[in-house]
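Predicting holo structure, TLP bound.
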Amino acid sequence: MIDLRSDTVTRPTADMRMAMANAEVGDDVYQEDLTVHKLEETAAQMLGKEAALLVTSGTQGNQVAVLAQVRAGDEVIAEADAHIFYYEVGAIAALAGAQTRTIAGVRGQMSLAAIGAAIRGENIHYPRTALICLENTHNRAGGAILPVAYMQSVHELAHAHGVPVHLDGARLFHAAVATGTPIADFAAAADTVQICLSKGLGAPIGSLLLGTRELIERARKWRKMLGGGMRQAGVIAAPGLIALTQMVDRLAQDHEKARRLAAGLAEIRGLTLDPALVETNIVIADVSGLALSPAAFLARLAECGVLATEFGAGTVRFVTHFDVSDADVDKTLSAVQAAASA
Ligand code: TLP
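Done. Tokens:
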């Protein structure tokens, strides 16, 4: 099977498994796991932040960031398709007790005017605007990159109103590699950043939340409350270190495969997409021009040996990663052709 459902499906490399077996470990709730310390310090240095915290998942990293900065009754601003709002099981409401004010973006970017208008002023009736969330790359916008300049403008606007910015950087390395921009430049335009080790970088588990030392210590308490205080977590941190130090540059290959896949898919009758909009490793195609439903199309595609996911009204998503070879891209195009015309 060629599995293009997500870049989360990669299995740890042989080096990662070796590193897990040999990792120096301690009890991380007592902050005695030296491999976790090394991972957190490495990430903090790469992103130019004071401190980092290993968390179990991207969702936990995002939600701990919310919990550390938002109180019940506050308002959080997020793009309408942002993962933190769309795909996290209502956690902002359920855990932080806050409401989310969504703004529809273009390619993942909320306009500055709309953000400015959404930030609450002083009024007895209003909730407090406590946090503005950005996502880079933006998953549901097809892996679109938010340029550093855009992020800086949002950050300046937010700070002028005393509101912090959280960046869901589950795929921030993809943005950095695709643009040739240091990841720290993106991170500098946010107060807290969440990065994933398991999306495209090949680690089996784990994300990191980054920010000031004071913020990270508050986040540590929330992580404990959510059950994310792990013990000999060095076995997770060890492959995470390999992800950060050896797996970043090769993301360019995944972007190239996605571009080639997109160009091929655009030629297939019944599929609509603009390959010029594919900036990283996510390809979203509109399949409403096919005679069959997206679910039926995906079922046929699976029979032809390729897995992809339904991604909202009439669309399917393909994600490239290191377990997908150049030859697999060709095989995928043949399979899609066959499934679309069957
Ligand atoms: N995204 C997953 C699914 O949940 C949709 C995927 O396959 O793309 N932020 C962003 C931008 C994400 O894309 C994801 C995962 C997360 C956060 C959550 O990470 P996990 O799955 O580790 O909780």
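The mean pLDDT is 98.
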